[in-house]
Amino acid sequence: MDPASVPTITLNDSTEIPQLGFGVFQVPDEETTRAVNSALEAGYRSIDTAAVYGNEAGVGRALASSGLAREDLFVTTKLWVADLADPARALHTSLDRLGLDQVDLYLIHWPAPATEAYLETWEALERLRQEGLTRSIGVSNFLPEHLDRIASLGGTIPAVNQVELHPALQNRQTQTADARLGIATEAWSPLAQGAVLADDAVRAAAAAHGVEPAQAVLRWHLQQGRIVIPKSVTPARIASNLDVFGFDLTSEELDAIDALDRDGRTGPHPAEFNG
Ligand SMILES: NC(=O)c1ccc[n+]([C@@H]2O[C@H](COP(=O)([O-])OP(=O)(O)OC[C@H]3O[C@@H](n4cnc5c(N)ncnc54)[C@H](OP(=O)(O)O)[C@@H]3O)[C@@H](O)[C@H]2O)c1
Q1: Which of 78, 127, 177, 235 has CB 3.0 to 4.6 Å from 109, enough for a Cys bridge?
Q2: Centroid of ligand 1 to alpha carbon of 23 (angstroms)
Q3: Whose CA is nearest to atom 23 of ligand 1?
């Protein structure tokens, strides 16, 4: 797969992010190196990790051994809840583990809204961006009310909001708030960790185009403008999850997948999770 076939999304700070990237949640560090090697060979150029995944070093080893130019890669990592008070130290630690001088996107992993600490954290991320330690800054798991509080600070608007989003949890209010504020929506668990792949509408769309159910789900996201970061440690799936630019779902197929929305949350609720 030619990496150039993956479209990019231009973020609100003019940075370009590949619309389809590779996630490494729940992958042990050693295995992460193999999986990311496999993804880079398949043609992925965007990798999504987080300090709390414990595999930034594994990502870094794969990036270093790939021989790819730094400017051809897009690396995202995230600030864990326990480090909200000291993002500079946390980002330096992440950069050391990744073996990089700069990440492309640094996200506050969860708002942890029991306190409003994330507001001060956001202002610290703005400074880290000014210092050149990250090209873009964004948030993850932020609800509309958290986004509005960030916007009311009057500074930088997050470039990205990475949230759980798949056919069984479409998070429409968050998507609307993101669009209103000019924030790109990035879908985590875009395949619902496999839970939607047997749904009739997904299977029918896949069969109609001669593709895998996961490819139909990824196409549904892409045609609706979202950034996606599917995870797999299986080389054939890693390759097929990227091979989603040679067909288009019809509007009827998109509507049928839209109709699968059912509050099928797989992770914590952002209003309740405080780390
Ligand atoms: N910001 C956050 O709070 C947050 C939370 C969760 C995840 N994320 C990010 O989002 C990424 C993706 O989410 P996720 O890992 O939870 O779930 P996901 O990408 O929706 O699904 C991954 C699961 O689906 C399987 N799978 C992958 N491709 C498949 C295919 N073509 N056919 C059948 N099964 C397939 C994988 O199995 P195998 O690996 O065994 O092939 C794995 O069990 C994460 O890796 C992480 O980077 C962010």
Answers
A1: 78
A2: 7
A3: 193
Domain boundaries defined on the chain: 3-258
pLDDT band per the 50, 70, 90 thresholds, residue 255 = very high
Q: How far is the CA of 124 from the centre of ligand 1 (A)?
A: 30
Ligand 1 residue neighbourhood (C-beta within 6 Å): 23-25, 48, 109, 140-141, 162, 188-194, 197, 212, 214, 229-234, 237, 240-241, 267
Give yes or no for a contact between 52 and 84, defined as CB atoms under 8 angstroms apart.
no
Q: Which of 216, 187, 177, 185 is nearest to 199 (CA)?
A: 216
> Catalytic: 106?
no
This prediction has a pTM of 0.98
Rounded to an integer, the average pLDDT of 21-50 is: 98
Give the total residue count for the chain: 275
Q: What is the pLDDT of residues 67-87, one digit of tens each?
A: 999 999 999 999 999 999 999
